[in-house]
TrEMBL record:
Species name: Nepenthes gracilis (Slender pitcher plant)
Alphabetical list of SUPFAM superfamilies matching this protein: RNA-binding domain, RBD
Function: As a component of the minor spliceosome, involved in the splicing of U12-type introns in pre-mRNAs.
Molecular function via GO: RNA binding
A single GO cellular-component term on record: nucleoplasm
Family matches, as InterPro entries: Nucleotide-bd_a/b_plait_sf, RBD_domain_sf, RBM48, RBM48_RRM
Keywords: mRNA processing, mRNA splicing, RNA-binding, Spliceosome
GO biological process: mRNA processing; RNA splicing
Protein name: RNA-binding protein 48
Family indicated by similarity: Belongs to the RBM48 family.
Amino acid sequence: MPRYKDEDPAIQVYTVCDESKYLIVRNVPALGCGELLMQLFSTYGEVEECKPMDAEECGPFTDVYWIKFHQISNSRFTKRKLDESVFLGNQLLVSYAPNCESLYDTKENLEGRRTEVLARLKYQRH
């Protein structure tokens, strides 16, 4: 019987710096469906860029896309909704890409989270 520590965790925990307005979408069918993918992701918020990533490892019949949202809150919501969802017969794998952020993006992310937490605390006091 495996020990508790040897088992995989049941949930994934993200810190503020792990989240990002940049997403990597894997397992997209290699059918030239970038416009359809952009339309799908745009339903969750304003997408600034959506482009295929040629340098990423992918299967012979799948592509990897890089998506940049205007706001991190839209990125968070989209990841929660579309990770492991089915798109044109394939299960999408959506992950954050904090390595794509600039220093300004990271600062904006931290300040935004600080504002959200302070607003929640203020709401709870009333």
